[in-house]
Specification:
This protein is an alpha+beta fold. Helix content is 18%, strand content 46%.
Length: 178
Amino acid sequence: MLFNKSFLILLFIAILLSEGCISERDLLRKREINMTAFKNDSLNHGYSNNSDLNNYNLWTNLYECKTFKKDTTNQVSITSIILNLKQNQLTVTAMNYDKPINQILLKGKLKKDYLIIKRNLFLIPIPFLYFRHREKRVLISNDVNNNLILLSGSEDFLWILFAGGYNSVSFNRYSKIK
């Protein structure tokens, strides 16, 4: 009986330790385009809500950095996103033409070529019964045409008797609105 308890404890610890996190280095390694030298005011513009590369919109991507709760903003009515960076705080405003619909404030850290948004982490560890790990990390920069470059990593892991999960890294480019 002692062997079974020890084995289960070691198995649980191994699962917890094997569960990684999303790092800046992982995101930067998977980027598909070079980012330009980053300046504080280079983000302070309006951008399209729809990505040039896939179907993932900017508001959803940035909203998940704040909370994993469901967003009640009507996605169809968002025509553009206005970003304003001041002292490591990024204000994100969803716009319907000239009318603001919703606004969030994200904290981040300026690096040489990018701004990294403080990660959103959700963790519930209850040994042997339930374990939930959910994480979102985003890097923001510009390309040579001043379009917005967004590298985002998501990870979701759940363990209730059995373990399962996923992780993904996405690369998105959003056009600057002139």
